[in-house]
């Protein structure tokens, strides 16, 4: 079931267009306020756009003279909160979708039991939602969504509220059930994008700034948000023979990757935080890129500390933080070898 979205919501300054092929999962990424939830609301029929259209499997759901109500769209939403009916048992919750579509009681229960088995939750059938853990409730929510036989699944950060020990199991479950289904997933977690999505759409300021195969976008980002999401540094500018000229006139030296950017065209330079050394004073010596920055945040990440400075970051050891006396507000130099910097067209 393919999906076409091309809509405008004036009061939220959102203009978004993208497509989802039949059987494909697309992850929508972006900072808070970028328009991710607005997009899901429009596709699900919870928000009517000022103009544009939403087409699912060739059928127009939203258009100039067309509006299909949410319950008639054959879509299912899986959100952070499982939203189970508290007065119904797990089995009755999952059977609700088939019953709403006209199935008899026996047939609906059979469908519900089949999907509970699919998500390894058969033993929970007679419990009420209040008797479930967070992970169990979200498994039941997956079963309920799929039991309704939706043409399109909408997932709004379904693992955001789960304990870190529970999320991996649900992520693996979703990877299995989404394998041949058409779905749109909003997420803030890089693993969700890499493991669940075939393609990603990156939103900033209510606009699509980047889209493409998940592995390509997250390994070769062209937008600041996608780079930070993927844990990479990105510097934008104009291509030079040996790097990227920044707006301040300085050149970040690097190695052009295929296809190489045309000199004078927009380009980006990308490098890993782990490739960055931090110095109190600008060093001399071998050809290296030296970026003067102000430390904004020190973020512990296991056995390293991520030093954030604007859109750039460096990963250093705890010992290095102590030795350099790093603290927010401090002026330092980020240093990275040209061989560690990839340059490609924006």
UniProtKB/TrEMBL annotation:
Tagged with keyword Ribonucleoprotein: no
Region entry Disordered, spans: 245-264
Transferase listed as a keyword: no
Keywords: ATP-binding, Molybdenum, Nucleotide-binding, Transport
Any GO molecular function: ATP binding
Domain Mop: start-end pairs: 284-345
Highest taxon listed in the record's lineage: Bacteria
All copies of domain ABC transporter, residue ranges: 2-230
InterPro entries given in the database record: AAA+_ATPase, ABC_SmlMolc_Importer, ABC_transporter-like_ATP-bd, ABC_transporter-like_CS, Mo/tungstate-bd_C_term_dom, Mop_domain, P-loop_NTPase, Transp-assoc_OB_typ1
Designated name of the protein: Molybdenum ABC transporter ATP-binding protein
Organism phylogeny: Bacteria, Bacillati, Actinomycetota, Actinomycetes, Propionibacteriales
């Amino acid at each position: 079931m393919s999906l076409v979205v091309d809509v405008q919501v004036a009061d939220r300054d959102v203009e978004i267009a993208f497509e989802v092929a039949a059987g494909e999962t697309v992850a929508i990424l972006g900072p808070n306020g970028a328009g991710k939830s607005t997009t899901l609301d429009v596709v699900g029929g919870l928000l009517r756009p000022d103009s544009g259209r939403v087409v699912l499997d060739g059928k127009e759901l939203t258009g100039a003279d067309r509006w299909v109500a949410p319950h008639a769209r054959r879509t299912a939403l899986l959100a952070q909160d499982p939203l189970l009916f508290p007065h119904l048992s797990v089995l009755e919750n999952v059977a609700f979708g088939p019953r709403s579509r006209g199935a008899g009681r026996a047939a609906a229960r059979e469908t519900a039991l089949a999907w509970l088995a699919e998500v390894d939750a058969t033993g929970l059938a007679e419990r009420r939602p209040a008797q479930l853990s967070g992970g169990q409730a979200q498994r039941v929510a997956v079963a309920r969504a799929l039991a309704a036989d939706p043409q399109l699944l909408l997932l709004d950060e379904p693992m955001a509220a789960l304990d870190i020990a529970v999320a991996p199991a649900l992520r693996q479950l979703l990877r299995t059930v989404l394998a041949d289904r058409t779905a749109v997933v909003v997420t803030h977690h890089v693993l969700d994008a890499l493991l669940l999505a075939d393609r990603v759409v990156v939103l900033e300021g209510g606009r699509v700034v980047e889209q493409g195969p998940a592995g390509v976008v997250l390994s070769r980002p062209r937008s600041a948000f996608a780079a930070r999401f993927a844990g990479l540094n990105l510097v934008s500018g104009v291509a030079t023979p040996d790097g990227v000229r920044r707006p301040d006139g300085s050149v970040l030296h690097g190695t052009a990757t295929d296809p190489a950017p045309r000199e004078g065209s927009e380009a980006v330079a990308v490098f890993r935080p782990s490739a960055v050394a931090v110095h109190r004073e600008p060093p001399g010596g071998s050809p290296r890129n030296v970026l003067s920055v102000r430390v904004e945040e020190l973020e512990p990440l296991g056995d390293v500390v991520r030093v954030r400075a604007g859109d750039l970051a460096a990963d250093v050891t705890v010992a290095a933080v102590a030795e350099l006396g790093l603290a927010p507000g401090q002026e330092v130099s980020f240093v990275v070898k040209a061989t560690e910097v990839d340059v490609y067209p924006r």
